């Protein structure tokens, strides 16, 4: 199959500022695309030019076509990009593809694809709530008017249970089958050995609340029984210096290591050897690092904000609690073996190949039936995965 993925926003921009990377090889959508390629399909990615990497696209196994944003002062590339020339490109090339996947219902490129090539389109939905911009009014208008009018026959594939429930308020064609982002199983895989270490993989920015994680870890290692534990912090951001000062003031500098940003090949070993990935975000959806930890056999300690929190709790993949503290870290230490086994079991379904296979199965199931017969189509898609 020839597959087209429309995903204009390649990375999260803090405070509306795009920090262009040297490479997009480790970004979420690249991992997702490689899952299809491993199954023998070819992939083309459409993205916004503002996210084009500063270096050369290093031997990516798929083609990337970048579009400049129209009226970027109004339609901000970080939120609602309007790719100049994409409509004309789709009209010319859509017939060349067997499956077209567009990220998010509330996106102009998705609306364009819904008009040009609805018969080949799947909408891949991450948002599980209305965007906060302008008191949620644009999002509410879009979902109550645009989605029912212009996307009413387009199947929507959710990336989480909350996303599924959210979109079912606005569309009758939301699949029961959930397709996560997918992780690179060649790089991220489990083993049976671990260190006395916890890990944070995150931008060091305010909404990630790494300062709270450090405080909880400090209270753990102040206890005599847990003085040998350490914390690895992987990532960078404008709070790094402040967090390093916090570690010094708490007297745990010898137990906390700031590694900076690491590519996946360097991240993989400390991630799989950690007791748990620690998360306490104030505003995130499907955090790729959570799926990467589970695929690596590493439990997750998180608050309820991430969309996958309910999945972690239901499957016993760690601890989910708002305001978690050092006692929850002790719970992971005491129950690591059980949680690790659950992660190894569930992680197999979170690889990019498994996610690509699910997406293709949904596509085939829908195409074999009239999608308006939704119960039958969903039943078939379930049985075919």
Describe what you observe in this structure:
This protein has 385 residues and is an alpha/beta fold. The chain has 2 domains: 2-182 and 354-383, Rossmann fold, CATH 3.40.50; 197-350, Rossmann fold. The chain is built from 13 helices and 12 strands. It has helices at residues 28-38, 86-93, 108-116, 137-150, 161-167, 210-221, 240-249, 264-272, 288-295, 309-315, 326-347, 352-368, 374-383; strands at 2-6, 42-48, 63-67, 99-103, 121-125, 156-158, 197-201, 230-234, 256-260, 276-278, 300-302, 318-320. The chain has a 6-stranded parallel beta sheet with strand order 3-2-1-4-5-6, with helices on both faces. A 6-stranded parallel beta sheet has the order 9-8-7-10-11-12, sandwiched between helices. Helix 9 (288-295) links the parallel strand 10 (276-278) and strand 11 (300-302). The protein is globular and about 65 Å long. It starts with a strand and ends with a helix. Mean pLDDT is 93; it is low at 370-374 and 376-385.
Brief characterization of the structure:
The chain is α/β, with parallel strands linked by helices and 385 residues long. The chain is built from 13 helices and 12 strands.
Silhouette: globular
* CATH-defined superfamily of the largest domain: Glycogen Phosphorylase B
If helices are DSSP runs of H or I spanning 4 or more residues, what is the number of helices?
13
Number of E-state strands: 12
Strand line-up in the sheet with most strands: 3-2-1-4-5-6
Name the helicity range: 25-40%
The fraction of residues assigned to DSSP E strands is: 5-15%
Number of domains: 2
Tell me, rounded to a whole number, the average pLDDT: 93
